[in-house]
Design goal:
Residues 116-178 form the KANL2-like probable zinc-finger domain. The protein is mostly helical and 239 residues long. It is built from 5 helices and 4 strands, in the order αααββββαα. The chain starts with 27 loop residues before the first helix and ends with a helix.
Amino acid sequence: MGEPSSSKPLSPLRIPDSPLSTSDALSREELLRRRSERLRQVTKLYKAFYWALMEELRAKYKDYYWRYGKSPYYNGEEEEEEEEEEEEQEQQQQQERNRSGGGNGNEEDVEEMRCEVTGCKAKAMALTRYCHAHILSDSKQNLYKGCTYCIKSTQTGPILCCKPVLRSTVPLLCPTHMQVAEKHLIRALKRAGLNISSTKKLAPKFHVVVAEYVRQIQTKRRAARKATVAKDRIDEEMR
């Protein structure tokens, strides 16, 4: 893939003067004819300007893809091999350009595109110096938060996944743990008497969801009450 050329700025578009533009007085027919002519001219110029913007957008997209690669949403585990192959191809192309003497000006840009985390060779995301996997290391970013899925519970507290997820995601889970949560929800709905194979195909009735949540809350309260009673008995025996 070659480096895209920079897009040229759009030239201003002007409407040519109509033969009736200098007239002091116009009849109704001449007025309608002039308006119709101007409407056709404006429509033609808008179309030309639209396609010029599309060409500029295409050039900027090529430049963005060249600098930053694919979107971070496609940097999953299934595509790690493809990313490694792309990095190898980019390194080979960069070496070829350096040998030919035409890539010396791009070495600094390539270095700036890499993630600042030590040992990470992934490309940095736009407007930051970190890749998608390490974007939470950027203290100035406000778009991502860590996945809140509890991987393991310890005495010091729960250990969360903390993979970067967009703040607008509800619930705040990464794609892997979102699937796990959906499976848990399907099991809970089956226990409540609603047999469905996917949460996307059929929305459960509200009263079924409420009943399941109430059951889970009551189960947690019973467990907490039993733990409190057992602790009180131990305290009494110690006295």
